[in-house]
Amino acid sequence: MRAFEDHAGADVAHLRTRVASFIDNLSPSSMLGAKSRARWVGSWVSLGNRYSALAGRAFRSEDADKARENWLCAFTAFEVARWLTDPRSQARLRLSHRSNACFQQFELCLTRPLERIQINSFDDERLTGYFLPAVSSRAVAPALICIADADISVDGILRRLSPVTIGRGISLLVVDGSDTLRCPPREASVWLSCWLDHLAGRSDIDSGRIAVYGEGMAAWQASSFAASDDRLAAAVCDGGLLESLRQRSALRWMAGTRAAMQKSKAISALRFARRIRCPFLVVAGGSGLHRGLDAIHLHSDCVSAGVDMTLALPRTIRTSTGDLENFVTTDNFVFDWLEKKLDACGYSERT
């Protein structure tokens, strides 16, 4: 870790490469030790603080580009510390507060400001989202609707994804999906369609290149949305795996036979996947082997049926607080995939 501290001042791409290597070289046995994790957390927080200090000096010197780069590095270091911290601890909450304070300073360095947007939903309820415009020379840019869930806040997604989105020319709209988690899938999809309407009507967004991204419990919302709105160009979702699991559980309760459950599994998962008209990516990590096996079976069925599904199975590390995946490698893969799919849609002639 000392070697990482000596590299404070490197650009965000270099730091993210070092972070990915650090996480990949962690062993499951070392992650079970509370003292080792606490030592690493302290080191990454220290590195984040050093980047924050560098960003502050650059900002006072009116070097906005350098300040922005150092803030992105600070977010990355703090995210590693958060990743290593027990989700139930007060330390994680303190890290979130520290990162939020840094993000407020980061906003001052943006060439285009972060927008807090409010729109009316189909039932006149006010919806709030945060829009981070793309850094692009083009008049219009593709956009990604990212759904936050109970495991990560809207602010948390902005801090984690800013380092990977800046420079890719993709605008980011982060919306809170916690309220819609209690809604029926169809109603949640209508809410998300309101956000799609908003983006499609903006003069700086290419309406033909809008994608959706849901992780954790929000992944099923992204699947339902992609299956109900054919305006989407791509989706990062669960491909209907959660819905399939629910149907299989209901069938097992009614029929109680293994054969009936297996038949339901094969039919319901592929049936739902066929409803998703755009290319979609399933990241089957961090939720245990069972979900991974289901995703592998679904991918095989989709390939046979000609459904455009991509499957990613990130390496996970077993810890005392659950399975953790390499968030840097996963985020890089997701946005590389999104860039490829959105570029394949071409550019509109809007100006």
How would you characterize the overall build of this protein?
The protein is of the alpha/beta class and 351 residues long. It has helices at residues 2-5, 12-24, 28-31, 34-60, 64-84, 90-107, 154-165, 185-200, 218-228, 241-255, 258-275, 289-305, 327-344; strands at 115-120, 126-132, 141-148, 171-176, 205-214, 234-237, 280-283, 309-312, 316-319, 322-325. The strands form two sheets. The chain has an eight-stranded mixed beta sheet, sandwiched between helices. It has a two-stranded antiparallel sheet with strand order 9-10. Strand 7 (280-283), helix 12 and strand 8 form a beta-alpha-beta unit. The radius of gyration is 21 Å and the shape is globular. The model is unreliable at 250-254 (pLDDT under 50).
Any key phrases for this structure?
351 residues; alpha/beta; 8-stranded mixed sheet; two-stranded antiparallel sheet; 13 helices; 55% helix; 16% strand; globular
